[in-house]
Amino acid sequence: MPIPAYDLTGRTALVTGAASGIGRATALLLAEAGAAVHCADRDERGLAETAALISKAGGTCAGHLLDVTDRTAIRAAVEAAGPLDITAAIAGVMHTSSVLETTDEDLDRVMDINFKGVLRTCQEAALAMISAGRPGSIVTMASGAVDAAQSGLLCYSAAKAAVVQLTKTLATETGPHGIRVNAVAPGWIRTPMTGRHSPEVQEQTEAVMVRMSPLRRVGEPEDIAQAVLYLASDASSFMTGQILRPNGGVSMPW
Which end of the chain is more exposed for a tag (fewer CB within 10 A), N or C? Predict the structure, then answer.
């Protein structure tokens, strides 16, 4: 039986980016904690696989094929989910280019998905919660990249920094309605997104990250899902506008 503060039985959650990686791990864990999970992603095959895993484990799940650049699709998913208690806005993309090589198209695409997509999701979820008179928890996905300048990650870091500011501002504005808004800023996590390079490059990158971490390891999607569960549950009932950093100690901001 779940620890009471983490028990999500009777609650409804929407998870974007649920087809793989952190999104999938989060959807699985929220379902395990008792939530009815609405999984959303533009990857139809991955979405079906996540739904099947949740169903196989005895959880409750519905799938929604959507792109977070489409507000109408987000609104439809929120409405289909019914009264929402939890929203985890995780969908995002990675992009690498130097500052001098970054094009307007690069920046527009990354900002549209990684920032505006989160903004749209948060807006629709918060409006639905307020309309239903239902307190809830919104969790956004920031990144450890906002804590230090990293070569090649201008677009990604800028979008994630905007997510941090969105999180704090939305928490301030929706707190009187009983809605909590917090972010998770992961360090290096072993996912399909970070594994897009060749095995050799992947191995070299992870070796660097392991050396940088006092824990001497990189993260797994489940490490981040546990942080989302905490923020989604009553265990964090007095927490809003905060940024959790499960990063293995790679950075330790004030």
Answer: C
